[in-house]
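Lab notebook, page 48
Experiment: co-folding of the full assembly
Goal: obtain a model of how the components sit together before planning crosslinking
Operator: M.T.
Materials (sequences as entered):
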Amino acid sequence: MAKRILLVEDEPHIVESLTFLLEKSGFEVSVEINGRQALNHALSAPPDALILDVMLPELDGYEVLRQLRDDARTAKLPILMLTAKGQREDREMAARCGADRFMTKPFANADLIAAVKELANVGQD
Amino acid sequence: MNEIILGTRIRQRRREMGTTQSDLAKKIGISASYLNLIEWNKRRIAGTLLKKIADALELSLNSLDDITERRLLSTLSEVAHLGPLEGSGIEESRTGELIGRFPGWAKAIATLARSERDARNAVQSLSDRLSNDPFLGEEVHRMLTRVSVIRSVSDILVEYPDISSERRDRFNNIIHEEIGVLSNVGEALAAYLDKSEHAEHILTPTDEVESLLNAYDNHFEVIERATRELKFKTNDPLPVSRREKARALSEERLGDVIDAVIKSHPTIETASARDRARRALSDYAAGAILMPMNSFTKKAIELRYDVEALAEAFSSDVDAVCRRLNALPPGENIPKIGYFRANAAGTTVEALGVEGLNIPKYSSACPLWVLYRAQQSPEAFIRQRALFPWGARFIFVARARNTGTTGFGKPRHYLTDMIAMSEADAAHTIYAPDHSSPVEEVGPSCRLCPRRTCVHRVEDLLAD
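Observation: model returned without errors.
Model output:
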């Protein structure tokens, strides 16, 4: 059965390219474009891995991450933060909030897919 | 009067005239050996004797003591303490002689020093902006997002040659659209940086107003003159309401004068900046009404620029006195006094600078400045003898005041007012340090401060 990935991203073209790549890699992809809906979605139907942008409408990525980690249903959900903010403070912030991986835009497709595959497998254990 | 330059100038002029020491000494009625001591800057002279020497050398008194030369002396003294020149054996005690004998070289050194300082300030301004400018942050974020899409989609086109023609067209369209957006972002950034290059650090309405105040050295003669013609009477003992009444009067009567000043300054571009400038200049005019420049200058000299005593003498607020001190026109023995104001978050709310002292407006400044420490001891005037990494020495005097409502259980909100002056200028004031006053090493901001081992460092040096 295909692993389920929740992609939280508000840039439609990134959503389009990532959805294509993930589906080509055998994942089943759902998309949310705002932080609040992403949180509700992940809590009610936890995916196998989550790709989370930082700058999102309503709730930012860090806050979504924090709340997911505070909830038993998603405390161990594998999460990859994907952002154009790549400064040291941003990485530290992501680590403090409980992200498993942190990748900056622009990214190489192969690196992103490899990271998601690794995370989805971790989630299976 | 600066004897170090004075003696050298007398010697220089006498030689130019081809007069011997003994001839000149005889003419002015002193011994040749005494004149020798004067010429080698070992005796102070003033009054009648100075007048006699000036007459004998066919010079005016002013030309023997040029204000430009005194400033030059102060600049060169700063140069002598610049960090990179440490250990180079500068004969600081002979600076006056250098100015007297080689004025061209002295000016050239001072010009180079100023140009180095301007470059340092420009780096500071750019560093501030790169770290904290919301526009740049937003545009760079947009740019990286666009580049991500282009990279990801173009890689897909290469990595998946067998995708449907429909999807290929769709991805090509995405690349086309994204390149258009990227090009707009690039243009916006280029225009912004181009504007910044011309406008130095002018970014916000506050910056526009500061630029106006600094362009005039915060002294508006036209407003000073206009306020002298106003009749203002109040028996109100409260400084705050006296100031409000004076401000209301200046808004009512000096609107045209103030608007003309604002109109004449090209950096006031936005409506918000115009409103702020009007408020700032009305406040300036209120200060001029309550503390007319002539009497204020006299009192300031008499009280040796003691802020607290001046506030009492003019029944005024401390911050109004600080601003008035900043507005003093240049003159002999008149110190150039800068004024800074910071809130409890450490944000510099106002900065009316003094030459050689720049404060970062968008990023954190050096926390070692007394400006940020004064709130630990509210209402007390605290002096700091600050030494900068490039050798400049400044005297800071800060005091935190409560701006919140008073009463038990009410939260206190403090603002700190600080005046700043070079240590040389502080010699004319009550704040002059003696030799035992401790010197505190401070910096501009971490990103520009070479004190690598400072325990208060929070950011890396920009050019490490």
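Interpretation: The mean pLDDT of chain A is 89.
Next step: discuss with group before ordering constructs.
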